[in-house]
Design brief:
Number of strands of chain B: 33
Oligomer: heterodimer
Number of strands of chain A: 15
Strand content of chain B: 15-25%
Largest sheet of chain B: 7 strands, mixed
Structural class of chain B: alpha+beta
Radius of gyration of chain A: 19 Å
Distance between the termini of chain B: 68 Å
Largest sheet of chain A: 5 strands, antiparallel
Structural class of chain A: alpha+beta
Shape of chain B: globular
Number of helices of chain B: 23
Chain lengths: 285, 919
């Protein structure tokens, strides 16, 4: 480790980022496993003293989740039903031990294809608020995560918050994680859905996302378009071929063909949960 | 540049502490290395196992993932902080329930459960599972942990069972004698001790499946890095650079000589001061690799023209085993019905939560190695041979061993740290990383099997033909044992008059496959038991009934021609399961009727096992010493290493009753080769039976000596009072003052040492003979539900009936059964070690606390005349039926057999679709 800094203010942190290359350390739950037994040689920017980045705030037009907010804090926070999918995902992130330390934002910065937070945040139209000394910018989540372990962050930038616009908080949401065991499992596939019913009982708003199937979690916008205006029970009759945006991968956890088929099934279940105002779900083999 | 150090202070278990450390040091390292709080264990350094769970301001976190700087100023609670003068209610409950086996995961469970109980004193089972889902256990099967946590909140009074009366130890559910240290975190595992002035050791390993290599400027490498002491390679090995558990097949170099045959093979050691080793990036080590063609698939390895992994093993065949009786081919051809099938299984990793660890140092001219192990004397002999020392100049002192399951039978780090200590004269310490452990140590053999089973119209087995290829990897290890055990057992506990079974151990450049609970028999049993279900379907017979009709009985002849005169318990096991079978089938039928066309279908499966205890047709004696000290303690030299299975307790129970002495008077001396005679290896389900028999003989011999001295009859009772033996017969009372008696050569007032070796015979060229003196039997029922839309399997209940001959300690026996079942579940549904891809505990999945359903254990006791108090072995039997019973239940639910393990959701769904396409 060449340098270590533990700034007390965001300004200090951004100054440091402007002047050199740093690896940001927050909850540590991806940092240390990635490091293994190798010596740490990078400069480490420890943001665990930036108390302003902690907590969830409600503004006029958005919910703002500070970058240091842990999964456990998110679970404990009173939030509307559209966040149920995110809370369900939170309970499936690693274990209680991980949820107590890991941050929601870090989950996105790590940019794992199997990031549990990605699908439920996608259905909330979440953006990532990024700060640099030069200023701030907001990047929609689907543009922030660019690929496996690749984000839109520039070297002098850091994530300060996740922003969920109030416009995307209507309705209820559901989440299904499919893995080969009950706890501490990297997903084979994940589905999140948010549905707001219109007054006539048809689907007014719908947002659908799948994770762990491809390098980056994706919204299923074509299917969303096809289901909007349908009655919920009729909306469940779609097949895998309607997941147009999905190009599933083959790996040790499952075949691509399996992922395509299972993705459709868990997406149906996530939609059913959102329509029933149901709790989150998890399926283990 | 060196890490800048800071003084980091926090409250540890109520006491302010501070350490000078890097702010990004892992909290786990600060606790263990700087503050000596080694109760917090390390299993993975990646948050995958939860062994290092601590409370930070009351919240459970993995200490391995927390930067030291984040802990500053906070309140840290570790396992050392749970007891307050006496065990906490939770710790006491863990002891009482037998929730700790090897003990390496126990601190993590206790701490995580403490966080739960602090906010919810009366949790439901589901709440317990949710709170403990982040801690992995490989021994217990979790059921006793759940029970212990739920029970911890209840009033404690009057629940501690008193120690058993003299003569009543056998059969009592005695709390494990070595249990307290496991629940306080005081047990010292391989990584928990670091001698002063010790060098740290880093192992350089091959990143290639097969490669030639040469070293660059090793002296320059050391010289350029202050704090490094030396580099050692094969050229530095003073002895025979070949180790192996079976002498004639010993072929594995401690450090490879110019060619590495598998990915993960050790090629060099770097020794240095701890900070210098920690700062070392292994990729900077000067070694040039020249990758060579490799073979990973056994079918390719035996194909014409395949490159040889070992020049002297043609066709890449290490060895093969055969058992033939009658004429299988003719019997199958003539039979009314026959079924055939194939099964393929994966590499399975032992995944004990303790990676290999230990230290070596020179005590005069004796090399002392303290490390985790299942086989101290084998370690001694292999280490001595590699280092060119006489065996009596190597002393193995077993550390507490955090699980083994077969892999800690082979040496791992012992010759490596021994070499460093020998060459430098300084103590040497090494703890494998999880990746080191997974990449370099042995695995369960992947098997590719096919078989045909035939019966007459009444369902009597006419013949069985079985052939299996077992991928033994780059070196021999226990490959020969697998090749010999499988043909003996592939017919199951069923009368099979015409039989031909062949198993080949085939070399590849894959990981070394060795011993893993069952030595190939679990794989072969999947082949057999799935065929039994297919046969039952073809015959229109109930599946349990087909098994019952063919189950071995007293007086029957096995496939090796051995007559089993008595003690054959498979019929009793099947009979015990019968009512459960009827109930389970009815429940499933009801549930399926109610579910209609829904995706979830219930299924029920059954499978049996038998397993010979001890080595196959080879000597495997155990020697047990017991003495009475001048102070009046009964000192048991108990060399049967307790890796969690309970031999410390069981062997003592046997010895106590044989001697007629109270168990409470016993003290244990462990398997230190400098203090305790050889009780053989903890393997082959042999310790309760073989070492137990030696302990029984030693106990009886000790008793006889005392009785003879007191000149009383065998009916006399012996009591122990401080400094006295009191011998009573009728009204007569004789008092022996111990401090007036001379000490014998062993240092005791009275002592005895006895050996036992099972009476077996060699197998002839057709595998005929008496391979084992004692067999154990069992059968299990699995109830599950398959989601046919996703291919997921939810286990509902497992009912296990095991004939243990005599349950020396019913609670420990249950613990073995539950733990074996959990490993069987993993093998059936999720475990798939892919070399180079799953060398960690998040890509390699083992069952969590949420994956093991309710288990109902039925202990069947059909005494074996050979075993101590009638006891048989149990340790391996218990996992054998689980995987086939699961596959049979999946078939019952879906109509399809998954013939490649593990039965992942992907494979289950693919099998369902394949069957749909055929219809």
């Amino acid at each position: 480790m060449a340098n270590y800094a533990r700034p007390q203010t965001l300004e200090e942190a951004l100054d440091l980022l402007a002047k050199g290359r740093w690896r940001v350390l927050a909850g540590g739950t991806d940092f240390y496993p990635g490091q293994g037994a190798r010596p740490i040689r990078e400069n480490i920017l420890d943001i665990n003293r930036l108390d302003d980045l902690r907590g969830i705030a409600r503004t006029d037009d958005a919910y703002v989740v500070g970058a240091r907010t842990t999964w456990s804090e998110l679970i404990a926070h009173d939030l509307p039903p559209c966040f149920d999918a995110l809370k369900a995902a939170a309970r499936e992130v690693g274990s209680v031990q991980i949820q107590n330390a890991a941050t929601v934002a870090g989950n996105l910065c790590n940019a794992s294809p199997a990031a549990d937070g990605a699908p439920p945040l996608l259905v909330l139209d979440a953006s990532v608020e990024i700060a640099a000394r030069a200023g701030r910018r907001r990047v929609p989540l689907d543009a922030f995560v660019r690929g496996n372990r690749e984000t839109a962050l520039a070297p002098d930038e850091m994530v300060v918050a996740l922003v969920v616009p109030r416009a995307a908080t209507a309705g209820s949401s559901g989440f299904v994680k499919l893995g080969a065991r009950r706890y501490l499992v990297i997903s084979i596939a994940m589905a999140a859905a948010r549905v707001a019913l219109a007054e006539d009982g048809t689907i007014g708003e719908i947002a659908l996302a799948l994770g762990a199937c491809s390098p980056v979690a994706r919204r299923m916008t074509t299917l969303e378009g096809a289901l909007r205006g349908r009655r919920p029970d009729a909306a469940l009759a779609f097949g895998p071929d309607q997941l147009v945006e999905l190009s599933p991968i083959d790996d040790v956890r499952a075949s691509a063909a399996y992922r395509r088929e299972a993705a459709a099934e868990i997406l149906r279940r996530a939609i059913r949960q959102s329509c029933n105002d149901g709790a989150g779900g998890e399926i283990a083999a | 540049m060196n890490a800048p150090l800071e003084t980091i202070g926090f409250t540890l278990n109520g006491t302010p502490v501070a350490a000078e450390v890097s702010p990004v040091a892992r909290l786990s390292a600060v606790l263990r290395d700087e503050l000596g709080a080694t109760g917090t264990k390390l299993g993975c350094d990646a948050g995958d196992c939860g062994a290092c769970t601590v409370l930070v301001d009351g919240a459970a976190v993995c200490a391995c993932l927390m930067p030291a700087a984040t802990a500053a100023g906070r309140r840290i609670t570790t396992v050392e902080g749970l007891a307050n003068g006496r065990l906490s209610a939770l710790q006491a409950s863990f002891l009482r329930h037998g929730a700790a086996q090897c003990g390496i995961c126990t601190p993590g469970f206790l701490v995580a459960a403490t966080a739960l109980l602090d906010r919810n004193p009366a949790p439901s089972e589901e709440e317990v599972r949710d709170a403990l889902g982040g801690v992995l256990c490989r021994c217990t099967g979790y059921r006793k942990i759940i029970a212990a946590v739920i029970d911890a909140g209840l009033p404690e009074t009057g629940r501690d069972s008193p120690p058993p009366e003299t003569g009543r130890a056998v059969g009592a559910a005695v709390m494990r004698l070595d249990g307290v240290a496991k629940v306080t975190g005081a047990d010292r595992f391989g990584a928990d001790e670091r001698p002063a002035g010790a060098l740290s050791v880093l192992v350089i390993r091959s990143p290639h499946w097969h490669a030639r290599f040469s070293f660059g400027d090793l002296d320059g490498f050391v010289a350029a890095r202050p704090g490094l002491a030396a580099v050692f390679t094969a050229a530095d090995i003073p002895g025979r650079n070949r180790f192996g558990v079976i002498g004639p097949f010993a072929d594995q170099p401690a450090l490879a000589e110019g060619t590495a045959r598998f990915r993960g093979e050790a090629v060099a050691l770097v020794a240095g001061e701890p900070a210098a080793i920690a700062a070392l990036d292994p990729t900077e080590f000067p070694v040039d690799w020249h990758a060579l063609p490799h073979v990973l698939d056994p079918a390719e390895a035996v194909a014409e023209g395949a490159g040889l992994v070992h020049e002297d093993r043609p066709g890449n065949i290490l060895t093969q085993g055969l058992v033939a009786r009658g004429d299988a081919e003719a019997a199958i051809a003539a039979a009314a019905v026959s079924v055939s099938g194939t099964i393929e299984t994966a590499y399975v990793e032992h995944a004990y939560i303790e990676p290999e660890a230990g230290y070596a140092l020179l005590d005069g001219d004796t090399l002392v190695v303290r490390a985790c192990t299942q086989a101290p004397y084998m370690d001694r002999d292999d280490t001595a041979a590699v280092l060119g020392l006489p065996p009596d100049k190597v002393r193995i002192v077993p550390a507490a061993t955090g699980g083994g399951f077969g892999s800690k039978l082979d040496v791992s780090l012992q010759p490596l740290i021994g070499l460093v200590a020998l060459k430098t004269g300084r103590p040497a310490v090494l703890a494998y990383t999880r990746t080191d452990s997974m990449a370099s140590t042995t695995k369960r053999h992947p098997a590719s099997m096919h078989a045909t089973l035939a019966a007459n119209a009444e369902g009597r087995i006419a013949g069985l033909a079985f052939a299996g290829d077992f991928n033994t990897g780059a070196y021999a290890s226990w490959g020969p044992t697998v090749a010999n055990r499988v043909p003996v057992h592939a017919c199951g506990p069923y009368l099979t008059p015409n039989y031909r079974a062949c198993a080949r151990a085939i070399h590849t450049n894959g990981p070394v496959a060795g011993a893993f609970r069952g030595f190939g028999v679990p794989q072969a049993t999947i082949m057999l038991e799935t065929l039994y279900d297919a046969l039952a379907a073809k015959l229109g017979l109930d599946r349990l009934e087909l098994r019952r009709r063919n189950a071995l009985a007293d007086g029957d002849r096995t496939a090796t021609g051995q007559v089993l005169a008595s003690g054959v318990g498979i019929r009793a096991c099947l009979a015990a399961l019968e009512p459960h079978w009827r109930r389970a089938l009815a429940d499933a039928e009801t549930a399926n009727a109610a579910a209609g066309d829904g995706p979830v279908r219930r299924g029920v499966g059954i499978a049996s096992c038998w397993y010979g205890c001890g080595n196959t047709s080879l000597p495997n004696p155990s020697t047990i010493r017991v003495g009475i000290s001048a102070a009046g303690r009964v000192v048991l030299h108990q060399g049967a290493v307790d890796i969690g299975q309970g031999s410390n307790t069981v062997i003592a129970q046997i010895c106590a009753d044989a001697a007629g002495l109270p168990l409470a008077a016993f003290s244990l001396v462990d398997g230190d080769t400098g203090k305790t005679p050889d009780a053989g290896k903890t393997s082959a389900s042999r310790q309760t039976y073989v070492s137990g028999k030696a302990a029984e003989k030693a106990g009886r011999a000790l008793r006889e000596k005392i009785l003879r001295y007191a000149n009383v009859s065998p009916q006399a009772r012996i009591e122990i009072e401080p400094g006295l033996l009191v011998v009573r017969e009728g009204e007569a009372r004789r008092q022996i003052a111990l401090d007036t008696l001379p000490l014998d050569a062993r240092g005791y007032v009275f002592s005895a040492e006895e050996s036992y070796d099972p009476p077996t015979t060699a197998l002839d060229e057709n595998g005929q003979g008496v391979p084992y003196a004692v067999y154990g039997y069992g059968a299990q029922i699995v109830e599950l539900a398959v989601d046919r839309s996703l291919g997921t399997v939810a286990l509902l209940k497992i009912t296990a009936a095991h004939d243990v001959g005599r349950a020396i300690n019913p609670q420990l026996a249950e613990g073995q059964i539950e733990g074996g079942i959990a490993q069987g579940i993993g093998m059936a549904l999720m475990e798939d070690y892919v070399p180079g891809r799953t060398e960690n505990l998040h890509d390699y999945l083992i069952p969590t606390i949420g994956d093991v359903p309710r288990i109902e254990t039925i202990l069947v006791e059909i005494a074996d005349p050979e075993g101590p108090f009638g006891a048989k072995g149990l340790g391996e039997h218990v996992l054998i039926p689980t995987a086939p019973a699961i596959l049979n239940a999946i078939r019952d639910a879906t109509g399809v057999l998954v013939d490649r393990l593990p039965a992942t959701p992907s494979r289950v769904l693919a099998a369902i679709h394949a069957a749909e396409a055929e219809r």
